[in-house]
Amino acid sequence: MGSSAPSREVPLVLKGSDGRRRVVSGADDLARQMGVYIGMPVAKAEALFTDLVILDGDRTADADALEKLAVWGLRHYSPLVAADPPDGLVLDIQGAAHLFGGEAGLIEDARRRLADFNISCVAALADTWGAAHALARFGRQPMQIVERDKTGDALRRLPVEALRLPPDMLPDLRLLGLDTIGELAGKPRPLLTKTFGPKLFRRIDQAFGRLNEPIEPVEAPELIRIERIFAEPIGAPETIEKYTRRLTDRMCLRLEEAGLGSRRLDLHFTRTDNRIETIFVSTAKPVRDARRLAKLLVDKIETVDPGWGVEKMVMTAAFTEPLVMKQTLASFETPARPDVEDLWDVLANRHGSDCLYRAISVATDIPERAVRRVSPTSEEVGSERNAIYRRPQRLYRKPEEIMALAVMPDHPPKAFTWRGQRYAVACADGPERVHGEWWIADREKGKVRDYFILEVDGGERFWAFRTGDGQHADTGGLKWYLHGKFE
Amino acid sequence: MGALHEIAGGANGAIDCTAPAAFAAGIAARTGGKVLWCHIQPDLFEPALARSGLRENQVVFCRVADESELLDSFLEALSHGGPTAVVAELSSLKPVDSQRLQFAAEKTSTMAIALRRWRRNVDARDFGNQTSAFTRWRVTELNSEPLPVRGVGRAKWQLELMHARSGRPADFEVEACNGQGLISIPSQLADGSTEAGDGFIRAVS
Fold first, then answer.
1. To bridge B20 with a disulfide, which of A218, A265, B7, B98 should be the other Cys (CB 3.0-4.6 Å)?
2. Total beta-carbon pairs less than 8 A apart between chain A and chain B
3. Residue whose C-alpha is closest to residue A126's, from A236, A207, A215, A214
4. Interhelix angle for A340-351 vs B67-80, to 10°?
5. How far apart are CA A155 and CA A162, in angstroms?
6. Are strands A88-92 and A123-125 parallel, antiparallel or unpaired?
7. CATH number for the A225-322 domain, one of 3.30.1230.20, 1.10.10.10, 2.60.120.330, 3.30.1490.100?
8. Which residue has the higher pLDDT, A49 or B46?
9. To the nearest whole angstrom, how far is the Cα of B102 from the nearest Cα of chain A?
């Protein structure tokens, strides 16, 4: 609405009709707090609350906007996204979550980006569409992740409204004293089916995951999309591979016409039993090389279960970027080596994108915080600090306590015992004093570690530290720890 | 260059694999191109490799969950040929796998370094079994040269060449890789200079 939008301080209500009368079809937080609810007659709302701003609700525009949001989800998060009208999106994030550091990471990311659009959202993750739908709307938590196979337990407490049933069925269920899904699911089926029809238990089975409910991904006309329908369903991996390569070739031609390169390529397989299997590959930079893309996709074909056969394959370039060709100079004497980025893509798609990293050194003296992991293609440069100072090649994730005796305050130990073995120190270097970073963690304030390099008889070199400076008791407990090992 | 080399640590080094890592970092750095470093255990302190010559802009790390994924990435990187050296911290290396790695390394003339690292000292007996590696090294830490002042001098290693294809086993006492990735032979053993170390590494690789 832009500048003509009503201000946030006024309660806003949208009106629609349910066939006979004008009812409230939407209300903002403020209006809800005052007591307006969805489905309330507009006349009643107007009579009770005087300062309401009432606007016409536009259902088709709402549906269009939701569809647009679904396309946004498709480009950013997962190849299987659909609108869940009137007010939701459903995403299948199987195999996509690791790109955001896990399921919680993906939801956090989505919430943050939606907040940037001024959209507040409630998210729930569960094994089935029905369960996630119910938990998002009736779970009373802004973000909820139900563990695998725990869906049933989470659902039982929720009211029957959460089941996506036709609205006229709900009062009748209440009349029977069935308030929660748990109560309803425990009842004998034949009688209730006779009264309410098959839809009731179909919804229950879908929510509990006994019945499959495929997500038909949203169609985005602006994305490049290529499909192939098979007269005879195909199933053999070699055949699938062959057609994957052909589709990739055609995709690359289309991308070339558009001057684009693909960052994420989705491939949907529609099976004869109407389930959709999906694989996708993402690359760090835009790619239009058919051989390279085909190799990445073919790597993943083994995860596709063709069932009784695949009757349709659809390839979509879900995320594209303009591809600029660069001219490289071939050196005359040494043959060029293949591009390493290609390899990073292969490894990232196989083992998860967080397995590959460059280690950037951070300007801090605390070794636990000294490394930041960035993507292999980034050009960032770290501080030189940890590369110049003598730091151990192996750093124990958790410093190991050792028994040591030393003259206070700043002499290295003469000997120490670690993992039941006694080591005599031949020579040592130190102390190197490291102060706690109070600007990061409050409890590190005033704390001190004195680091020593200890070379023991036999040649092994260790990195040990003592907590506390040996003079002031509040700087640390004077315990000795082993923290790393040198070459 | 295009061959598989095995490096392991002596004594406790078989478990923590620290000196071999520094040795491998020095050699890998001097291949000049990108280096891929595959590992499983989380205790590698990456910035410290720069002291052996392997700078942060030259190396990409790949941390995977288990040994089979590690072997898979190792082989994939070698047969791709983009990096000039690939280092992998492996515990077991079957003859068949070593043969595959060796072929892949030869084909793309990539240097392959298998750092052997075991969970227990007992398992380290596995080292020395027949593999297709071109050379097999064992690196053991020695006490450093005493300094005229208090402190710890440049690290010193005993470098055992246990096996070299069409070559003889040999022992060297060397000083650890410096910032250029060069080892050096202490002066009382030879008329040492960094160039001596240079030629020596080139001779084996």
1. B7
2. 165
3. A207
4. 160
5. 9
6. unpaired
7. 3.30.1490.100
8. B46
9. 18
Lowest mean pLDDT: which of A185-194, A214-223, A304-313, B104-113?
A: A214-223
Phi and psi angles of residue B169, each rounded to the nearest 5 degrees, phi first: -60, 150
Query: What's the rounded Cα separation, in Å, for the pair A472 and A283?
Result: 54
Q: B163 pLDDT band (50/70/90 cuts)?
A: confident
Residues 6+ apart with CB under 8 A from B105: B2, B3, B4, B78, B111, B112
When scoring B7, B36, B45 by the number of chain A Cβ atoms within 10 A, the one with the most, hence best to mutate, is: B45
pLDDT tens, position by position, A353-411: 788 888 888 888 888 888 888 888 888 888 877 777 888 999 988 999 998 888 877 78
Query: What's the CA gap between B88 and B70, in Å, rounded?
Result: 7
By C-alpha distance, which of A5, A47, A65, A54 is closest to A31? A54
Asked if A464 and A431 count as a contact pair (C-beta separation under 8 A), the reply is no
Architecture of domain B4-204: 3-Layer(aba) Sandwich (3.40)
Tokens of A407: 């003259």
CATH number of A2-57: 3.40.1170.60
Contact yes or no for A387 and B176 at CB 8 A: no
For chain A, the first-to-last Cα distance in angstroms comes to: 66
Q: Which residue has the tokens 């690791």?
A: A98
Q: What is the pLDDT of residue B198?
A: 39
Nearest to B16 among A367, A394, A428 (CB): A394
Per the CB < 8 A criterion, the answer to whether A13 and A52 are in contact is yes
User: What is the pTM assigned to this prediction?
Assistant: 0.73
Smallest CA–CA distance from A392 into chain B, residue:
B48
Map out the domains of chain A as residue ranges. Answer: 2-57, 61-208, 225-322, 390-485
Residue ranges of alpha helices (H) inside A186-286 are 189-196, 199-208, 237-258
Residue ranges covered by each domain of chain B = 4-204
The distance of A386 to chain B (nearest Cα, Å) reads: 6
B189 or A244, higher pLDDT: A244
Cβ atoms B160, B169 nearer than 8 A: yes
Q: What pLDDT is recorded for position B111?
A: 92
